[in-house]
Amino acid sequence: MKGDGVNVMVADPGPQVEDKDAGATPASALFWDRRYQEGRDGWDLGQPAPPLQDFLGSHPLAPQPPGQVLVPGCGRGHEARLLAELGFAVVGLDFSAEAIAAARQVAAPPGANLRWLQANLFDGQALAAAGLGPASLQGVVEHTCFCAIEPQQRPAYLHIVAELLVPGGWLLGLFWCHGRPAGPPYGSDPGELAGALAEAGLLQALWQPAPYGATGPQQHPRDNEWLGLWHKPPSP
Ligand SMILES: C[S@@+](CC[C@H](N)C(=O)[O-])C[C@H]1O[C@@H](n2cnc3c(N)ncnc32)[C@H](O)[C@@H]1O
């Protein structure tokens, strides 16, 4: 199926909906709400992902504050809190009420500019109502949201990200490029993913297997994570 374009990034990964999910698919907040409620949340590291934390803390290409940054599919908000601590103005977005409630329960870093938004990232009206219109963001940080989006929705997701960024804005992402039929929920291929981001109009600055430094992943090893940084072209 490779080469068919961005709509098909892995051969029939399937959402692997368990019986417990009772028909809810990963495209619905209900699917994720149940997982948070029942503790079926094995993706949650309980801390920011180490490759993102290391990159933001020390890499020469690391984006610097100030600027408004969105974390789509933020879950319990570990990366959002980290970014706020670094000095960005952060919006943590998730359509799961459970995730946003859990994110709100954790104290924000002192002086943080951090807000939580319960919304579907495909709901343009909800985004606009929260001040997230075209060119409203300096940056987007993606971590295990892409792998939760149905493959046919991915071009739309990347288009939304590109549209929300200011010219010259950036996308930093840690992508779980697994090919496992058992999920979580959808795999991807690094080459096709890079192609999809290029098709969305973003310029690649970095795309490499995720390096693991001093901060991990001692307790939560993951195969096939890729770290990338892209920029929206500056205005002509
Ligand atoms: C695999 S979890 C990852 C959560 C968090 N990024 C982390 O690493 O802990 C995927 C998250 O994306 C959220 N999500 C999936 N599709 C979404 C959508 N269309 N709009 C908003 N959030 C979405 C889910 O509710 C879930 O919290």
Q: Any idea what the CATH architecture is?
A: 3-Layer(aba) Sandwich
* Relevant CATH superfamily: Vaccinia Virus protein VP39
What is the molecular shape? globular
Task: Report the helical percentage.
Answer: 25-40%
CATH T-level fold name? Rossmann fold
Percent strand:
15-25%
Q: Classify the secondary structure makeup into a structural class.
A: alpha/beta
Name the quaternary structure. single chain
Q: Give the topology string: H per helix, E per strand.
A: HHEHEHEHEHEHEE
Q: Report, as a whole number of angstroms, the end-to-end distance.
A: 36 Å
Number of helices: 7
Q: Give the overall pLDDT as a whole number.
A: 88
Main β-sheet: number of strands, strand sense, barrel status? Answer: 7 strands, mixed
Strand order of the largest sheet: 3-2-1-4-5-7-6
Query: What is the radius of gyration?
Result: 17 Å
Count of discrete domains: 1
* CATH C-level class: Alpha Beta
Bound molecules: S-adenosylmethionine
Number of strands: 7
* Poorly predicted spans: 1-15, 214-220
Report on this model:
It contains 7 helices and 7 strands, in the order ααβαβαβαβαβαββ. It is α/β, with parallel strands linked by helices. The termini are far apart. It has a single domain, classed as 3-Layer(aba) Sandwich (Rossmann fold). The protein has helices at residues 29-38, 50-58, 78-86, 97-105, 124-129, 154-164, 190-199; strands spanning 68-72, 89-94, 113-118, 137-143, 165-176, 203-209, 225-231. Strand 2 (89-94), helix 4 (97-105) and strand 3 (113-118) form a beta-alpha-beta unit. A 7-stranded mixed beta sheet has the order 3-2-1-4-5-7-6, sandwiched between helices. It binds S-adenosylmethionine. The site of S-adenosylmethionine has 21 residues, from strand 2.
